[in-house]
Amino acid sequence: MIVGLGEMLELGLPLVLDGSVLLLAVIGTITGLFVGAMPGLSSVMAMAILIPLTYRLTPQQAFGLLLPAYAAGTFGGAIGALLLNIPGTGAAIMTTYDGHPMAKRGDAGYAIGLSCVYSFVGGIISAIFLAVFAPVVAYWAIRLGTREYFAVAVFGLGVISYLSPSLIKGLIGGAVGLLLATVGMDAITGVSRFTFGYAELAGGLEFVPVMIGIFGLGEIMYNIDKGTREGAYLPQRFGRMLPRLSDVKRCLPTTIRSLVVGTFIGVIPASGPTIGAVASYGLEKRIGKRRAEMGTGVPEGIVAAETANNAGTGSAIVPMITLGIPGDAVTAVLLGALMLHNLRPGPALFAQRLDVVASIFILFFLGNVLFVIFGLLGARVFVRVLKTPQRVLLPIVAALCFIGAYATRRSVFDIHILVIFGIVGFLIRKIGVAPAPLILGFILGPIVESNLRRGLITTDGSIAAFFARPVSAFLLLLTLVLLFSPGLIRLARAGFAEVQRRRTRGHRSIHNESGRE
Amino acid sequence: MRAIVNSFTVTGTAVLILTALVAAYLRRIPFAPLRAGLGPAFFPTVTVTMLGVLGVASLVTGIACSRRQTSVNDVEPVTPRSFVTVLLVILYAVGIRHAGFLIPTGAFLFVSMVALGVPVRRAVLITVLTSTAIYVVFGLMFRMRLF
Fold it and tell me: Do B54 and A171 lie within an 8 Å CB cutoff?
C-alpha cells in the first residue's frame, strides 16, 4: 500500500518537533548558508564534514542537521555567484549569468532577494514532490528484481559519467570507484580482496574518510594549490530585497517552466540540481519572452536558474531513498549518512522505518522554510562572510576534515585513509577527472556486484537475460545510447557531411555532363 | 613529444599502471565457475578489464588530440606549492599518530597559514582560537580523546 501524507505527518511531526532537532536544523541552515556562499567550500564538503558529528545522534537529529544544510547550501551558492561571479556551488553556475550583472548594476540586495525567494519556491515544491512521489516509487520498487537493480545502478553511473566534462574520464572515475568498492571481504565467499594484510580493511574501505578525503581534503588542497583568493568586494548599497509584484507576475511562466524542468531532471538518477539549472536556463534562453536580454541582468535569468536548482534538491532524494541510487554528489553523501545510522535505503526502509522516512520529508520541508527566513534576514551578514580570506579558512577546514574522519570510529587508520584519498582527490582534479563518478561508483559498487553475480547465477550466465525484462532492458539500452551517443552523433555528422559532399559532386557531374551535351 | 603530454595521456598512463598492478594482485584471488557463485575475483576482473579498455581509449584520445592539434583540457602543472601542500598534509597525519590531535593541529594551522601569507601575529591568534574551539567542541562536548 502506498503511504499517505497524513500518516507520515502523524508519525514524523512529534519526532521532528523536538528542541534538539530544531536547534540542529538552525545550525544546519546557518552552516549551509555559510559554506554555500564561500567559493572554495562546497555543500558536499560541508555535509562530508558534518556526517561524522551525527554518529552519536538519533536519525532525526542527524537529518535535522544535514537536510537543512543541503537546502540552504544550494541557495547559499547563489550569494558567491551574484557578488563575486564565482558560484559557491555547482548548482549556482547559471545564476552568475544574470545575477552578477544585476549585482554590478547596484541591485545586489534585489538579486539576493530574488534568488532566496525563488530558491524557496523551488525547494518547497520539490519537498512536496518528494513526499508524494517517493512513496509511489518505493511501492513499485518492491517489484524490482536483481536485474532491475543492476540496471538502475549502471544507468546512474552512465548518467553521471555522461554529464562529466569528459565521458572517458567520467567512466574511468566510475570504474575506479567500482574497484574501490571491492576492497574487503567478499560478501558471498568471505575471501579477502585488496586488504594487504590490514585487519581494518576486512570490512571494506570506510565510507566517511574516503568521502571526506575526495570531497573535502582533496578540494582544499586543490584550492590552496590554485592560489587563495582575498576577501571580496562588498556592495555599498543593499536596497530592496523582496521581489516586486510586477516581476513576480512577469516571471510566472518562467517559474512554472523551471519548476517542471528542475523537478523532473532532478529525479533522474545521478543528474541532480546542477543539470536542472543548466537545462532550465537554456530553455528560458530559447523560449522565454525576454530571451534576447538573457545574460544582461534580467530577473528571468535568476528565477530560471535558482527555481530549477532548488526544485532538483528534493527530487534528487527520491532515487536515493527509494532505490539507494543517489541523485547527485550531495545525496551520495546523504546516503552515507543513512548507512552510518544502519539504515538501508530502499523500499524496505518505508516498511520498517517509516518514522525516519517521514522525519526526512518533514525536515527537508523545514530546511527550506528556515533558509528563506535566515537568508532574507541575515543576507547582510552572510555577504560579509565573503570577506573571509581563503588563506585563513582553508587550513581550518582542512583540520576539521581530519577530526571528521577520526570522529566516526576514533581510528588513526581512518586518518591514513583520509590522507590517501585527499591526495587522490587532489591529483584527479589536476588531470580533470571529476570526483562525483568515483564516489558514485564506490557507493553503487556493492549493488552492481551483488546484483550482477546473483543475476548471472539465476540465469545460467546469460547476459541476454538482463535485456529480457522491460525495466532493465529499457535502462540498459538507454545507458548504451547515452554512452555511445557522442560517438554516434559524430558518426552521423560525418555521414551527413559525406552524403552532402557526394550530392554536391553528383550535382556538379550532372551539371557538367548536361553542359557537355 | 611535449605536445603528447596532455590530461588524456596522463590519465590513460596512470589508469594502465593501476590496471597492471590490480591485474597482478588479482592472480592471488580465486576465480570460480558460474555454479560456484563466480568467485571473489569475478567482479574485480570485470572492472579492471573495463578500466584497461578505458585507459587505452584515454591514451588514444590524448595522442589523437595532440596529432590533430585539437585543444584539450591540458594537465595542470605540478608546482612547488603542490608538493608543500601534500607534504604538510602527510606531516599532519604523522603528527596525529604520534602526538594526538591538539599539538599537531595547532602546528598545522600555524605553518599552513603563514605559508599562505597570513601575518605571524594573526596566524598565532587564529591558531590559538581554533585549537581552543576544537578542544571545547570535540574534546569536551563530543568526549573525543585528542591527546
Answer: yes
